[in-house]
Design a protein that fits this description.
By secondary structure, the chain is α/β, with parallel strands linked by helices. The chain is built from ten helices and twelve strands. It has a six-stranded mixed β-sheet with strand order 2-1-3-5-6-4, sandwiched between helices. The chain binds NADPH dihydro-nicotinamide-adenine-dinucleotide phosphate.
């Protein structure tokens, strides 16, 4: 059988788990598809994407640092992607238009709500970091109707500007770390990439209550620095971002193939795999 071609574009891309995840989904749903990880040169996104679709490719995932290039590349955008101004999924639609979507936020919300049983409605939410990942998750998070979202970032102006783009969807503000002093949060989401260097942004433990949930978008073999910080300060629940990773992939798979794969077993095997690695 001829297999439909899919890929993930990024740089670096070597450690991407997406090929394993999509191979598991394809096997589970009996789909004839191949999915490769492709390292694209910086500045070479359009050329590589044009070639991929010209050669018969059906869909792409896009990761760092090309999500904004993909946003510009798409011929049509979902509402959440146009809000995010970042695209992580491209799909060749039936009419030949390449559609852009962003499944990061749906993935995060589905992991929190369906897998972990966390209810976002009415919560005081803190997001640490204001990069591409946060851009992608704000619309779906605000649709869950939290009491409010505060974004804090090392570069305060980025958090301020990002929050300002979403104020019509709910109570949201942003700025520097000083804003969290003397505040408490029910849900703390770490979306800073400091953990990649084994660090975590410095935060007072007074922001946590005994009911606080802590979500690190990062995932690694070991508990991340942010997870260790949260556990040390007795957060009620702590998780890494493997569930988000698998759920955003499942949403991309649904866009491409119209089928919803079962995710629990894939989350468990990725988690087992990262721990064994
Ligand atoms: P970006 O590079 O776009 O943003 C990085 C963010 O981290 C910025 O807000 C930056 O602050 C902040 N930051 C970096 N280093 C430090 C530091 N030493 N101290 C404090 N803040 C720091 O990355 P993304 O938004 O794309 O990704 C963020 C994280 O989320 C990554 O760890 C990534 O792996 C993870 N992720 C997980 C996904 C999943 O499915 N689980 C999906 C997407 C991302 P500043 O603006 O000041 O530079």
């Amino acid at each position: 059988t001829v297999k439909d071609k899919y890929a993930v574009f990024g740089n670096p891309i070597k450690h991407s788990k997406s090929p394993i995840i999509h191979a598991a989904f394809a096997a589970q749903c009996a789909q004839a598809m191949q999915y490769r990880a492709v390292r694209v040169d910086l500045g070479g996104f359009d050329r590589a994407a044009n070639k991929f679709f010209a050669d018969g490719g059906k869909g792409l995932n896009i990761t760092l640092p090309f999500k904004e290039d993909a946003f510009r590349f798409a011929g049509r955008l979902s509402e959440r992607a146009s809000r995010a101004r970042a695209v992580n999924t491209l799909n060749l639609a039936a009419d030949g238009v390449i559609e852009g979507d962003n499944t990061d936020g749906v993935g995060l919300v589905r992991d929190m709500v369906a897998n972990l049983g966390w209810v976002v409605r009415g919560l005081r939410v803190l997001i640490i970091g204001a990069g591409g990942a946060v851009r992608g998750v704000l619309e779906p998070l605000l649709r869950e109707r939290p009491e409010g979202i505060l974004i804090v970032n090392r570069t305060a102006s980025r958090a301020e500007q990002l929050a300002a783009e979403f104020t019509d969807l709910g109570a949201i503000s942003g700025g520097g770390y000083e804003l969290i002093e003397e505040c408490q949060f029910d849900l703390v989401i770490n979306a800073s990439s400091a953990g990649l260097e084994g660090e975590t942004p410095e935060m007072p433990s007074s922001i946590l209550t005994e009911r606080s949930c802590c979500y690190d978008m990062l995932y690694a073999a070991e508990p991340t620095p942010f997870m260790r910080w949260a556990a040390h300060h007795a957060a009620w629940a702590v998780t890494d971002g493997v569930g988000m990773l698998v759920e955003q992939a499942a949403q991309s798979f649904y866009i491409w193939r119209g089928l919803r794969p079962e995710t629990q077993s894939v989350i468990a095997s990725i988690r087992g795999g990262t721990q064994a690695a």
